[in-house]
Amino acid sequence: DHLFNEKIDYVFKVVVIGDSAVGKSQILSRFTKNEFCFDSKSTIGVEFQTRTVSIKSKVIKAQIWDTAGQERYRAVTSAYYRGALGAMLVYDITKRPTFDHVARWVEELRAHADNSIVIMLIGNKADLVDLRTVPTEDAVEFAENQGLFFFETSALNGDNVDAAFFKLLEEIYNVVS
Ligand code: GDP
Ligand code: MG
């Protein structure tokens, strides 16, 4: 954030959702701190982290919210979604059920979030190639049908994490500007 002395043009609230243990908190710390924590505890009480970036010569502060271990279906409250302009909906490419639940998370977003929310579907743990159980094509098809953007990422090695966030923030910018 210290790189930007100029004033912030926009603050975009982004929520990170998806089943437990898919890597939501790690994706967030990879994007905001460029860190991966090998012995991280499950999320407790942390509300949001920020990173300020420049998109189309605007200074944008991304305020990214992490669920405080409320990943059980319907446990995330509507306050969490309030004001969110974007959502990172994360599943684990090695755990099929986490992908099968993505449709429910989309329903949650449609029920609680703003209609214009931009949704990025994320297949995380792409580094675990030998353990993959969700083919990329399945996710591509789902994303196309639902009008979601889609990336596969690895919070572990950092692949595509910045790319996914930048794409999401750019699309939000297109919606609000
Ligand atoms: P959350 O419950 O969705 O917030 O998941 P966490 O971020 O706490 O991660 C759950 C587990 O998956 C932890 O043991 C992480 O170290 C691991 N993990 C997260 N992202 C990746 C990844 O991209 N690759 C691999 N191999 N492991 C990951
Ligand atoms: Mg977490």
Automatic annotation (TrEMBL):
<comment type="similarity">
    <text>Belongs to the small GTPase superfamily. Rab family.</text>
</comment>
<protein>
    <recommendedName>
        <fullName>Ras-related protein RABA3</fullName>
    </recommendedName>
</protein>
